[in-house]
Amino acid sequence: MQNKVILLVEDHPDDEELTMRALKKNNIMNEVVVARDGVQALEYLFGTGAYAGRDLSAMPQIILLDLKLPKIDGLEVLRRLRADDRTKFLPVSLTSSKEEQDIVKSYQLGANSYVRKPVDFQEFSGAVQNLGLYWLILNEPAPERVPV
Amino acid sequence: MPSLFSSFVDRPLQFTNRSKWASMLNRVTSSSRIGAALVKGVSSGMELAHKHTVLVLTVLFGMCVLIISVHVTQLKTHMVASMSLQGAEIYTRALEEIRKWYTTEVVQRLHGQGIVATSDYQGHDREIPLPATLSFALGEKLVAGRPGETIRLISPYPFPGRRQQGGLTKGFQQEAWTVLQQSSEEAYYRFEEENGTKVLRYATPDRMSTECVECHNALPNSPKRDWQVGQIGGMLEVVYPVDNIQNIAAVGLSGAYGSMGMLVVLWLGGFGLVILKLRRVAGDLEEQVRSRTSDLQNANQQLELEIAERQQAENLLRQARDNLEKRVQERTGKLAAANAELIREVSERKWAEEDIRKLNTQLVQQTAQLSASNKELEAFSYSVSHDSVRPLRGIDGFSQAVLEDYADSLDEAGKTYLQRVRAASQRMSQLIDAMLNLARLTRAEIHSQTLDMSGMVNAILDDFRKIDPDRQVECVVAKNLFATADPQLIRAVLENLLGNAWKFTRQREAARIEFGYESYKGQPAYFVRDNGAGFDMTYVHKLFGAFQRLHAYTEFPGVGVGLATVHRIIQRHGGQIWADGAVGEGATFHFTL
User: Is the pLDDT of residue A99 over 70?
Assistant: First the structure.
């Protein structure tokens, strides 16, 4: 379970801290890679830029992708992931406020779930717990090499 | 120029020409006068013949008969004369030819043989009668038995034996001798009355031939002996009575007259018949003319009647036409007025169209502005929903972290304060959610369909009962109420109204919520009624404003956006909403869609 990486794409340190705390509170000890914007997230996933030469066989078990990001926003990142064979089947859970349009667009672009980050930390914590339980334990990921 | 003109006018030639023309005109006029008189005479004669045809014809016929009679009488006289002359001529020529023949063939031959011709030959041998004696004797023989006729040779120089017979008597014989001596005429004649009968006395000259001269100059008893050849020795006179011929002619004439009389009678008869026939025809014609005339008069009267009727009809027509013209004028006037009105309206419409165009342009601009501001609003909402919630999440999250991790360092008051920080941030979060919801409803498109209002109300109340199972609320929902509206938005309306009713009847022992359809202020409307806390009608105008609250938060928590949302949705459906209530007596919300 420890080798299953969580990619957290979050630009605000408060939310990052709170998410990390919620994960910890829920005993989710997986490695968490934090990307501060869409560009960093894509560099990590495709082994470019700061992450050049990264072993691409190790892909994150779940990507918690904030919708509103500097440079490249969450929906654009999602679109690029789904356009590439290497990342096509990676589980992506978008996190954001409750805006209907965002939810519809996210699912259209291939999001696996959509989680609202509530103001109440206890609710937020519950949501993170559920996420981890499902995507890190219950969900069977797609094979790494998908015969085309 | 004026001098030239006056000289031209005064030229004398002008007057000469004028007088010539006048004389010619006079001549023409006089000849035409004669012609006119002629024409007048002919025409009057024609008129007379036309009027008195029978009289004129009779006169003309009488004149014809008269002319023929005169002509026939003359013809008779002429014929009698010519026949008498012919008879005398025949006697004369016969005697002369015989005498000539006797002289040359008998007397001359016998003279050589010693036989002489004498007037006294009877009883003497070797003597023969003289040619003249032969003529006497032959004349007497010829007229023997023909009374009145005499033929004799007469001369102023008679032989002695015949002095009494052969000498010239006064009257015709004397005259004939003188005339024949002086002229070379071969005959002289005259008609005379002799002893009561008409006779022709015809005398021809007896010229002396060579033989005659030889003998007469030689004869001893010759009364004249110096005869020369060609000299007239005597005359042969023939007395020829005309009566016989006249009688014969009279007989012929009487026959002719008889025939003519017969002809006249026949002609008169025929003429009479023709006239009778003509009279009859004329009578028929007159009858026809009379009947035709009466027919014509009848026709004329009818025509007059018709003319009168036509005139009447014409008058009527004229009146009708006048009326029509009047009406046409009126109509034309009205039309002109209508036309003017129309033109005015058209120009007004043009102005109106211009206004509309301007308004349209403005509208387009405003729509564009609105769309732009809508987009701005959307961006704003988006930003609010993401960015303004994040700090709240931080406040709440880190307050919780302090409470969890540093509970030992805090006293109860500190813990309470941190709890209140958390509650405040959560309320803030609710407020933001409500605002965003209101904004979203404002923008959302309306998809109308038929709604079961009664069913929807029952479903919502069921949800409330599940959430709040301890409450005992009497719910009265009218059955089979339907509406045409957007289901999601109307659900929000009903959730809000019913939610308020549920909330504000919390303190009632016998809570009652009612949904139905009734007339409110003369207009049928849906209503949601409760017997809850109610409200003061003084503040009814604040009821539907956003973030307006009429109750203390501690009493009835809420953010004050619900009724604003309801009001907005009803407005967007083109409906109206009214509130009615009193403090402590419940509230009723009426709305139309």
Answer: no
CATH number at residue A99: 3.40.50.2300
Count structural domains, chain A: 1
- CATH number 3.30.565.10 is the correct assignment for the domain at B446-591: yes
Interface test with A, best of B374, B383, B386 (most A CBs within 10 A): B386
Q: Is residue A108 part of a domain?
A: yes
Chain B residues near residue A118 by CB distance under 8 angstroms? 393, 429
Q: Please, are residues A136 and A62 in contact by the beta-carbon 8 Å criterion?
A: yes
Residue-wise pLDDT tens digits, A41-90: 999 999 998 888 888 888 898 999 988 888 888 899 999 999 998 888 88
Query: Counting beta carbons within 10 angstroms of the beta carbon of residue B6, is it exposed (0 to 12), middle (13 to 18) or buried (19 or more)?
Result: exposed
Q: Which amino acid is it at B5?
A: F
Model ipTM? 0.80
CB contact under 8 A, B394 and A14: yes
Length of chain A: 148
pLDDT digits (tens, 9 = 90+) for B190-249: 888 877 888 888 998 888 888 778 878 887 777 888 888 888 888 888 888 888 788 888
In chain B, what are the domain boundaries? 2-44, 81-241, 446-591
- A119 to chain B, any CB pair closer than 8 A? The answer is yes
Distances in whole angstroms, Cα of residue B305 to Cα of each of A125, B155, B290, B308? 124, 108, 22, 5
Distance CA B576, CA B91 (A): 175
A14–chain B nearest CA distance, Å: 6
- Structural domain for A22, as ranges: 6-138
Q: Is residue A145 part of a domain?
A: no
Q: What percent of chain A has pLDDT over 90?
A: 24
Q: Give a yes or no: residue A132 inside a domain.
A: yes
pTM: 0.43
